[in-house]
Specification:
One of its GO terms (molecular function) is UTP:glucose-1-phosphate uridylyltransferase activity. It is an enzyme of class 2 (transferase). Belongs to the UDPGP type 2 family. With 298 residues, this protein is of the alpha/beta class. The protein folds into two domains: 251 residues, Alpha-Beta Complex (Spore Coat Polysaccharide Biosynthesis Protein SpsA, Chain A), CATH 3.90.550.10; 43 residues, no CATH class. Helix content is 35%, strand content 24%. The strands form three sheets. The chain has a nine-stranded mixed beta sheet with strand order 5-4-1-6-11-8-12-10-9. The protein has a two-stranded antiparallel ribbon with strand order 2-3. A two-stranded antiparallel ribbon has the order 7-13. α3 packs antiparallel against α4 and α11 packs across α12. It starts with a strand and ends with a helix.
Length: 298
Amino acid sequence: MQVKKAVIPAAGLGTRFLPATKAMAKEMLPIVDKPTIQFIVEEALSSGIEDILIVTGKAKRPIEDHFDANIELETNLKSKGKTDLLKLVEETTDVNLHFIRQSHPKGLGHAVLQAKAFVGNEPFVVMLGDDLMESEVPLTKQLMNDYETTHASTIAVMQVPQEETSKYGIINPEGQVEKGLYNVKNFVEKPKADEAPSNLAIIGRYLLTPEIFEVLENQAPGAGDEIQLTDAIDNLNKTQRVFAREFTGKRFDVGDKFGFMTTSIEYGLKHPEIKDKLREYIIELGQELAPNENKKSE
Ligand code: UTP
């Protein structure tokens, strides 16, 4: 069966970005000029996904509005001949989007469970806005390609520094079925560096079979007293095979302030409108911040 549906959980509290996220979903925070959730929607579409469900919390309106037509704005831009801006505003409206509310943020697993009726009995992908991925073949598409041969759940993973394993779900790999596609013995949520079975960390893309919902319905809260998707995947792996695909492209972690800032800089350095000015600014700032460093290299 073909994978056609994606679920984007966007109902978390976003506490790492307070106060910005007091009244706004963190998925609406822009990287230069585009909300992170738009990058995710674009990855889904370029992978061939046809229907997208966004799981929202209290800050649902701005996300819904972002992907809807804004007649007043469009009329204004049209009358002023601002066709480039008009194109940017219109390009977000032609997407098959659905919304559902997670009334209490009981964890990522619980957010995914809200998609049960939307997904039905099909394989689907889960895409998190915390990670922006850059690769020739979009990571979601890579997972979909794997599914065509494995017909099983496949989770995207990436090597992280050993001292950072406690920030991630980590896999215990058990050999590769082909280059970069691992069998998984078990999944461990946020292990300490000296207890981690590997440094292959789960990043924000999952291809899941619909049996995950049955597991999630019976999943007890785990770390942080939240219903963890990693725990449910570990349980799913006990009844059917779950694979891990190693991502070798570039990952931008926008889930915390530091990653968000560095991603904004890197994307800014590629943005046609500001890249030259930003580059100049960074060089000048570097000289200001570390004048002696620069002298040393002269
Ligand atoms: P995070 O743990 O990164 O998001 O969850 P968070 O809880 O909003 O962030 P902090 O830690 O408080 O800063 C990963 C993804 O899962 C969604 C989030 O919106 C994010 O995209 N999520 C998390 C939900 O949709 N519901 C939840 O109950 C928890």
